[in-house]
Amino acid sequence: MADQNSYYPDRYTISEWLPISLKEVKDRGWEQLDIILITGDAYIDHPSFGIPVIGRILEKEGYKVAILPQPNWRDDLRDFKKLGKPRLFFGIASGNMDSMVNHYTANRRLRSNDAYSVGNQAGFRPDRAVAVYAEILRNLYPDSIIVAGGIEASLRRLAHYDYWDDKVMPGILDQSGIDYLVYGNGEKPILELAGKINRGASVQELRQIPQVAYSIPAEETLEEWPGRPTVELSPFEVSSADKVSFAKDFRVIEEESNTLSSARITQVHGNSRIVVNPPFDPSTMSELDSYHALPFTRLPHPRYWKKPLIPAFEMIRFSVNIHRGCFGGCAFCTISAHQGKHVSSRSIQSVASEV
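RESULT FIELD:
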C-alpha cells in the first residue's frame, strides 16, 4: 500500500469540496441549504461516484448543496438533523453499490469489509439503505420532498426479485415515504426536478419529468404521455405469486430500459400505482464532457486524510471514465439495467485533459 501522505496535497482550501458539516456550510455564509444529498459511501469528490457528480451538477446551477456521507442511523439521528431542513429536497442513495450486495456474499454471509468506507470497515450503512434513510427523513421532516436515486433505488423501482429474502419484493416507492425516484444516470432528471421545485411547479408538472418514477392512488387517472404508449405490468400481488407473470414483467422492464423510444410503465401495488416515466435520451458527448469538466478535487474529503485509506479511492485514483453504457447485458451485471445499453462516449480532448 502506498504511503498515505503521498495521496494528499500539503495545502488545500476546504471550500474546494462540497460541504459536509454545519461549520463548512456556515463558513460559506449560507443560512439554509437548498439540497442535502445523503449517501452510504464516504465522500470522495470524484466523477466515479454518483452523489458527488449530482452534487457538482447542482452546484454549477447555483444551488446550495451539501453532502451527508454515511450518517449514523442507529443513535439519536443527530447526523440527519445537523444540517437542518433543505429548502428544496433531500436526495438519498445507498452509494455506488446496492447495500445488500455491499453487505452480503453470494452465500448470504455477512461481509467483514466495505471498500467504500474508511479502512475497508463494514457497518457504516444499513441494510436496504435507501428505504432506511427515507423512513428516517419522513419521520424527522414530514413535509420535505424526498428524492431517491442511484443503483439501489433504480433496480428496485418496480416489483423485483430479492435474492436475500428469496422472494419478489414490491417497488421501493410503495409505502417508503419517497416522493420521486430518479433512475439511471441522474444528471438530466435531477436538474429538471430541482428547477421545477425551485419555481414552485405543481405536483402534476413534476410528474411529467422524464426518467422519474412516483406513486399515485391506483384509481387515479393518468394523462397520456405524448408520443409514447403506457405499458401495464401485472399487479404486484399477481407478479409476486406467479413466476410466469413475473418473468414476463421482467422482460418488459428489461426491453423498455434499453430502447430509445421507451414506453411509460405502471404497476399496481395494492391501493397504489407506481408510474415510471420514459427516460431522457442518453447523454451526448458534449454533455459527458461538461460533467467531467466540473471542479472535482478527485480526492476524499479532508476529514478522512488522517484515517486509514478508502480502498475504492485507491482503485479509481488514476482511473478515467471514457464512456457510459454497455451493450453486453451479462446476467451477472447491472450496467445495462442501470446505465442502459446505449454507449455514450467522451471526446478525446476531454479524456486527454483529465489525464
